């Protein structure tokens, strides 16, 4: 039972344009959502998070939007840069445990 | 700050042998450490949660006798895969958490069982 889903396994974007990564969840008890960036053969690194009581959080080029009624969140990266190419994981926090989505591989082309 | 290391980064072993993976928090004390497993193109799946000095709590479907976890100090946790089989081949990642719930991830260990 996949409680956190990232339905797009990959996304390709041109440098300078916006990247939008999507994530859906099923459990309304999740109280915090996080996005992680992961390079091959490395552990995930924290990118940005949002509390369930907020609908938007912005940090530089990264913005996370949360739509609780739709149980959907998205990560916007603008402008996208080639160095953003990586696998992005959406995760939800429940009672101290992280539940991850399957990841979306972002490729930003120069 | 908040650096977590794992050793080894890669291990290849024969079927039936046991493999120990170490996870260390280098510059902070970790109240809790987590062990995850990731199969190719899949999400990180939480295997177990360990608190220093107490027994690990395993997620449903994870065999505690096969995946032995020891959290002997506030900076070290070990995962031992006992009697490893090819289906145990995976990417194992640990994370360490100080008291504030934030998790810092190690670089992972690639286990290949022949």
Index terms:
heterodimer; A: 110 residues; mainly beta; six-stranded mixed β-sheet; five-stranded antiparallel β-sheet; 57% strand; globular; B: 114 residues; seven-stranded mixed β-sheet; four-stranded antiparallel β-sheet; 0% helix
Q: Strands, helices and their partners?
A:
The complex is a heterodimer of chains A (110) and B (114).
Chain A: E1 4-5, E2 10-14, E3 19-25, E4 32-38, E5 45-51, E6 56-59, E7 62-67, E8 72-77, E9 86-94, E10 97-100, E11 104-109
Parallel strand pairs in A: 2-11
Antiparallel strand pairs in A: 1-3, 3-8, 4-5, 4-9, 6-7, 7-8, 9-10, 9-11
Chain B: E1 4-7, E2 10-13, E3 19-25, E4 32-38, E5 44-51, E6 57-58, E7 67-73, E8 76-81, E9 90-97, E10 104-105, E11 109-113
Parallel strand pairs in B: 2-11
Antiparallel strand pairs in B: 1-3, 3-8, 4-5, 4-9, 5-6, 7-8, 9-10, 9-11
Q: Briefly note the structural class of the backbone of chain A.
A: mainly beta
Order of helices and strands of chain B: EEEEEEEEEEE
Poorly predicted runs of 5 or more residues of chain B: none
| Overall average residue pLDDT of chain B | 92
Residue share in helices of chain A? under 10%
Task: Give the fraction of residues assigned to helices of chain B.
Answer: under 10%
Q: Which value, in Å, is the CA radius of gyration of chain B? A: 13 Å
Q: Which ranges of chain A are low-confidence, i.e. pLDDT below 50, for 5 or more consecutive residues?
A: none
- The gyration radius over C-alpha positions of chain A equals 13 Å
Q: Count the strands of chain B? A: 11
Number of helices of chain B: 0
Ends apart, CA distance between termini of chain A? 38 Å
Percent in strands of chain B? over 45%
The description of the largest β-sheet of chain A is: 6 strands, mixed
- Oligomer type: heterodimer
The share of residues in extended strands of chain A comes to over 45%
| Distance linking N and C termini of chain B | 37 Å
- Name the pair of protein chains with the most residues at their interface, and give those residue counts: A-B, 20 and 25 residues
Count of beta strands of chain A: 11
User: Main β-sheet of chain B, in a few words?
Assistant: 7 strands, mixed
The mean pLDDT of chain A is 94
């Amino acid at each position: 039972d996949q409680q956190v889903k990232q339905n797009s396994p990959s996304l390709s974007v041109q440098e300078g344009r916006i990247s939008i990564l999507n994530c859906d969840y099923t459990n309304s008890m999740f109280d915090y959502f996080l996005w992680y960036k992961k390079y091959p053969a490395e552990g995930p690194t924290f990118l940005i998070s949002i509390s369930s009581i907020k609908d938007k959080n912005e940090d530089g080029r990264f913005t996370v939007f949360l739509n609780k009624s739709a149980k959907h969140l998205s990560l916007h990266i603008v402008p996208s840069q080639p160095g953003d190419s990586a696998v992005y994981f959406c995760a939800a926090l429940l009672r101290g445990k992280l539940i991850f989505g399957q990841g979306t591989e972002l490729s930003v082309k120069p | 700050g908040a650096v977590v290391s794992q050793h080894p980064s890669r291990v290849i072993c024969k079927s039936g042998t046991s493999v120990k993976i170490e996870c260390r928090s280098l510059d902070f004390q970790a109240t809790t450490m987590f062990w995850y497993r990731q199969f190719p193109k899949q999400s990180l799946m939480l295997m177990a949660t360990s608190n220093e000095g107490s027994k690990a709590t395993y997620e449903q479907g994870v065999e505690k006798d096969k995946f032995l976890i020891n959290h002997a100090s506030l900076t070290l946790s070990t995962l031992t895969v006992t009697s490893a089989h090819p289906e145990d081949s995976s990417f194992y990642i640990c994370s360490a958490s100080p008291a504030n719930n934030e998790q810092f991830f190690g670089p992972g260990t690639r286990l290949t069982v022949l």
